[in-house]
Design goal:
Number of helices: 25
Oligomer: single chain
Shape: globular
Strand content: 5-15%
Structural class: alpha/beta
């Protein structure tokens, strides 16, 4: 046992062994799932491969390790006609609640996402890869795995458990090492016996020849039956295979987790009473489906919450460091509008780069996985993500301005409201020559120009990606288009920024698109590949320098008066932000990523959208009434009110509608949003437009 533990601790220092373990786990799961399809399978006839579709639908669940393996597994299964959905997390993921705060939070998120994906995807197989957060006693682990089987059973699905690749027990995991070892692992020793027989009770009618094997499990000998499977052919056609059929162990002894093939359990069968839900299949040395992700640099294992974004999904909102960057950006904007940070408006630029990166990553991941981009579904997700909170804030703001705002603020709010609804308020301000830098203090919707820019980008850019991402070189084409588009936007900014009123250069979609397109550029595979090659020792100082550069720009830039702002300054800021984002997302464990992924900035990032929507109306309507508290005191109270409003909106409006949970299940969420929008339209009609100058005296009449 001691020798085994030593070899486990050395595993991360041997990239070949680490890679082989990851490939074995992915390939064996592909063999088990594809071989047990319900209707049909791929076949090979006279050297020509033909792939027939099946009714099998695989839902892949796990943490960022599972996410890194998802592209290869998904490609192999889809080539065999098996539907595949990746539901793994970009950070920590687990279904086991050990009683600690971190696992309670992570497991809650995992179960919530799992329920949503089961409802929408309707899988026939739920594949769960054991994660590095599966802490807890054997009883807690058993209860979690039993709950998974019960959940799948209610949905008519089978369960497949997949052991995770080896990790080094570093300082982060050391305190949970004993608990991690009680999770089901792969076999320590397998001894083959001669002879084969047919599988008589495997699920889904699998009937491949099987080999009787025995292995030692503690002091007792436990018999298992495992399939002699043939790995998928390079063309994607599966060979003959069968699911594992396992006898219930009379006693189960915890062992170290090692890379191993899939563990299969049907939802219709009972889970063993011990912590191991089922015993794993013996390894068959299957052919790798594709190259696994590279091991962490310098032989060190990084906690899941700091790991890189998985290939093929170039950045999801759940990466802790990117959430933290959102938090820093919204704080900069709040301080700028309160008059305490002269260059804080550049935080909007960081928002743009993040949006371009994340949205393009989602689009490219969908194009790679499905061969096309479902534009309707994409726009539907954007509407569910952005529109509920926006409608809520707009309706409440109009009512509050009617009650407590000045006549001038109410008139401008009613004037801007139709343009806010059309997501084109930035062009309204440009057409009316309403200067951003000197007239925004009378308009409660002045800050929504940036939301309009993003909506317009979300309408146009997916069309480009849907066409350009097709084919073998799709991501390179998208990279070229994004880079060329960013340069065109730079040229327009330099040309229009020379005017006396720079609102056109600052709020135009065609000029601010540079930041969005730079984010899109670094989300493409060529740039992500370059970023992943950067060693952590080199990425650390680069990220630190970029972060310090952004902070310095926020501190010293003097608004539109900055001499180089529209002569390349905005572009340079966006480029630095894009490089910082891709390094944080693709190079695991940098110090800057750990700082940005801290609890406070990450928490602010999660409510950043609602916080941005609320803060400006709160400032305009509340700050004039807080003069007795002084400048800093009034700002603190206004930010506190904005935070409370943002937290309530996120919890009660944003998340339920976006995730279709709670009160917004079924069609109630969209109905409520439509009703809220109609309420805003009624307010626009009912609220009387104030007469400017009422209550004043014409000087000419006094003569």
């Amino acid at each position: 046992m001691n020798s085994k533990r030593k070899s486990r601790s050395r595993a991360p220092h041997r990239p070949a062994r680490h890679a082989l373990g990851a490939v074995a786990a992915v390939a064996a799961l592909g063999v088990a799932l594809v071989g047990c399809g319900e209707k049909g399978s791929g076949t090979r006839d006279e050297g020509k491969s033909t792939t027939a579709s099946t009714d099998t639908k695989v839902l892949w669940v796990g943490d960022s390790i599972a996410g890194a393996e998802a592209p290869a597994l998904g490609a192999a299964l889809k080539a065999s006609g098996v539907a595949f959905k990746d539901s793994s997390s970009d950070g920590g993921g687990t279904i086991v609640d050990s009683g600690e705060k971190i696992t309670r939070m992570i497991s809650g998120d995992t179960w919530k996402q799992l329920a949503k994906d089961i409802e929408s995807f309707r899988p026939t197989v739920v594949a769960y890869q054991l994660t590095t957060y599966d802490w807890g006693s054997a009883g807690l682990q058993r209860a979690a795995y039993e709950k998974l089987v019960d959940t799948a059973k209610r949905a008519g699905a089978d369960v497949v458990l997949v052991p995770s690749p080896p990790i080094k027990i570093d300082g982060f995991y050391k305190q949970h090492e004993a608990q991690m070892r009680t999770a089901p692992g792969s076999p320590r020793t397998w001894r083959a016996r001669a002879g084969a027989r047919r599988c008589s009770s495997t699920p889904r009618g699998c009937g491949a020849p099987t080999t009787r094997r025995r292995r030692r499990c503690g002091p007792r000998t436990v018999s298992t039956t495992a399939s002699r499977a043939r790995p998928p052919s390079p063309s994607g056609s599966p060979g003959n295979s069968a699911s594992a059929r396992t006898s219930r162990p009379r006693r189960w002894t915890p062992g170290p987790r090692r890379p191993g093939p899939a563990t299969s359990a049907t939802a219709s069968s009972a889970v063993p009473r011990d912590a191991a839900a089922v015993e794993p299949m013996p390894p068959h040395r299957p052919a790798p489906l594709s190259a696994p992700p590279p091991p962490p640099p310098h032989g060190r294992t990084v906690p899941a919450r700091h790991r890189a974004a998985r290939p093929g999904a170039a950045g999801r909102a759940h990466i802790a460091a990117l959430d933290g960057l959102r938090g820093f950006a919204v704080v900069a904007v709040l301080l700028f509008h309160a008059g305490h940070l002269s260059g804080g408006f550049l935080g909007v630029d960081l928002f743009f780069v993040l949006s371009g990166y994340l949205i393009t990553g989602l689009l490219l991941g969908e194009a790679a996985g499905r061969g096309r981009v479902a534009l309707g579904a994409f726009w539907g997700r954007r509407v569910r993500r952005l529109l509920p909170a926006l409608c809520c804030v707009v309706v409440v703001t109009v009512a509050a301005t009617w009650a407590w705002g000045s006549a001038e603020q109410l008139r401008f709010a009613l004037d801007d409201l139709p343009w806010v609804g059309a997501q084109a308020v930035n062009w309204h301000y440009i057409a009316e020559q309403i200067g951003y830098w000197n007239a925004s203090d009378t308009r409660v919707f002045a800050h929504l120009w940036s939301i309009g820019v993003e909506w317009q980008f979300y309408l146009a850019w997916p069309l480009v990606v849907a066409v350009a991402a097709r084919g073998r070189w799709g991501e390179r084409v998208v990279a070229v288009l994004a880079g060329a588009g960013a340069l065109v936007c730079l040229a327009l900014t330099v040309s229009l920024g020379a005017a006396v009123d720079t609102t056109r250069a600052y709020e135009g979609t065609d000029t601010r698109g540079a930041a969005l397109l730079l984010g899109a550029l670094v989300a493409t595979a060529p740039v992500r590949g370059l970023a992943r090659r950067v060693p952590r020792r080199a990425a650390d100082p680069v990220c630190l320098a970029l972060a310090c550069g952004l902070a310095a720009a926020w501190a010293v830039t003097e608004g539109e008066k900055a001499p180089l702002l529209f002569q390349g300054g905005l572009f340079a800021h966006s480029l630095a932000a894009a490089v910082l984002i891709v390094l944080m997302a693709q190079v695991p464990g940098t110090r800057s990523a750990r700082l940005a992924g801290g609890r406070l900035p990450r928490g602010l990032g999660k409510v950043s959208y609602s916080l941005y929507l609320w803060h400006w109306p709160v400032y305009l309507l509340l700050l004039p009434r807080l003069t007795a508290l002084g400048d800093l005191g009034g700002t603190a109270v206004a930010i506190g009110v904005s935070l409370v409003a943002a937290a309530v909106t996120t919890r009660l409006v944003e998340d339920p509608v976006r995730l279709r949970t709670g009160w917004a299940r079924g069609g109630r969420g969209p109905v409520a949003v439509v009703a809220l929008a109609l309420g805003g339209a009624v307010l626009w009609v009912v609220v009387p437009e104030p007469v400017m100058g009422a209550g004043t005296v014409d000087v000419d009449q006094l003569r």
